[in-house]
Amino acid sequence: MPFLWSRTSPIRQVTPVEFSRLCDAFQQDLIEWFVLGARSQEQLKWNNRIAAALALSKFSFGSDYFTCVIGRKPVGIAAVTRTDGCYIDIGLLATHPGQQGAGSILIEHIVNFWPPQSFHLELAPLSDARPFYLRLGFETLGSRDMRLDVTKSPQWVRLGGKWRLAAYVHLPFYAAVVDAVPAAP
Predict the structure, then answer these.
(1) 10 Å Cβ neighbour count for 89?
(2) What is this structure's pTM?
(3) How many structural domains is the chain composed of?
């Protein structure tokens, strides 16, 4: 698939009905990525990631729903709930195991969705996902829960009125799949 660079984020908020439809499409695409007859450790690990994403995507609870669509396919989904004045609970965040970056830009979008005031994101990730959230600046709370306070995390910077992951500040564009690359002039 050809890629172009776009200033338009692949993340958008969707209705609960559209979220349900996108979850179905996400699940169907994941099923097609299973390695049948997996024997190697790498194949088994891949299938476990797909199984975890499938299991997570069946639970769509939240008050706000977001998706990351590359081309025509959803590669990441998130359901979040604003619990009180300063906590946002991420009840679901699942990404396609073959798509890097979808989880990071979903988190970045969620951070910037609400007015810029002090708040925390909280979640209870699968154990395999904990290193990813630690890299994004989440801190461990007890045995399972994690919390992100972007105002105190060195992984986040405020730029142009928005919170950005410091690792991605140098990227002003998003990769976008296109059906055909336009002919050169």
Answers:
(1) 19
(2) 0.82
(3) 1
